[in-house]
Amino acid sequence: MDSASGFGPDGYGFKSRHARTLVLKSLPMLVNTVVMKGGFFYNNRLFLKTAIRIIFGIVWLIDGAFKFLFDSPATFTQMVQAAGVSQPAFLMPWFNFWAGVVGQTPQFWFYLIAISETLLGLALIFGFVRKIAYSLGLFLSLIIWAVPEGFGGAYGPSSTDIGTGIIYAIVFLALILINTEFGISRYSLDEWLEGKISWWYKLAEFGDYSARSAKKRR
After folding, report:
1. In terms of pTM, does the model score above 0.85?
2. Exposure check for the chain: N or C terminus, fewer CB within 10 A?
3. pLDDT score recorded for residue 119
4. In this structure, is the dihedral angle defined by the CA atoms of residues 184, 193, 138 and 60, taken in order, positive or negative?
5. Contacts (Cβ under 8 Å, ≥6 apart) of 109
6. Which helix (H) or strand (E) holds 199?
7. Ranges of each domain in the chain
8. Of 143, 122, 152, 140, nearest to 56 (Cα)?
9. Phi and psi at residue 62, in whole multiples of 5°?
10. pLDDT tens-place string over residues 101-111
């Protein structure tokens, strides 16, 4: 058959099979180079874990800034009230409760959330009281998901995602696990404060601090 047809020796079919063969042969090498011991992620794991915290902190700082710049107590109240629309009947007491609570003092709840997001962002960026920041961040993320985001619902044919709050909560859980595994973070205020204040680790570290503190700080 003519090669111009795309199915000859120089046509599309041959080139496609050749490309797939090259990809399959190079994939294990790529995975080993990037992921496995000696690869990019392994060699840079200490820097990357810090980068994740800082980038996540910037996200929270932007969230807080946007609330001060573009949001208001009135719109926050409307968001909480709208979260209960079309929700299952067994969830309505939950949403009615929060709609009533927020509706009574909207300024308090709005600025509490906005200030909390801003302070949380700064704590993540600078690595300050990480144990408290991660724990409160996990709790705050779940509250945001469960109240103004309405558990990401109500779910139906037009649903496209489950909300951002639950994803933020998973990231905080990952940060807690990273802290438990790696311990002291070299690129943080906590690392400096732990060298100055004997009890500061109680605010910054998860897991067995006494065993890790004897090791080289990472």
Report:
1. no
2. N
3. 97
4. negative
5. 73, 76, 101, 102
6. none
7. 1-43, 44-213
8. 122
9. -65, -40
10. 999 999 999 99
Instruction: Map residue 184 onto helix, strand or coil.
Output: coil
Query: At residue 210, does pLDDT exceed 80?
Result: no
Structure-token pair, residue 97: 């409760």
Q: Does the pLDDT value for residue 118 go beyond 90?
A: yes
Taking the C-alpha atoms of residue 175 and residue 178, their distance in angstroms, rounded to an integer, is 5
**In 3D, which of 212, 152, 148, 208 has the Cα closest to residue 185?**
212
Q: Is the pLDDT of residue 193 over 80?
A: yes
Q: Summarize the confidence of residues 8-22 as an average pLDDT.
A: 51
Owner of token pair 């496209």: 160
Whole-number pLDDT of residue 43: 81
Residue 206 CB coordination number (10 Å)? 18
The chain-wide mean pLDDT, for the chain, equals 82
Distance CA 145, CA 139 (A): 10
- CA within 13 Å, CB half, 12: 3
Burial of 26 (0-12, 13-18, 19+ CB in 10 A): exposed
Helix 45-70 to helix 165-182 angle (10° resolution) is 150
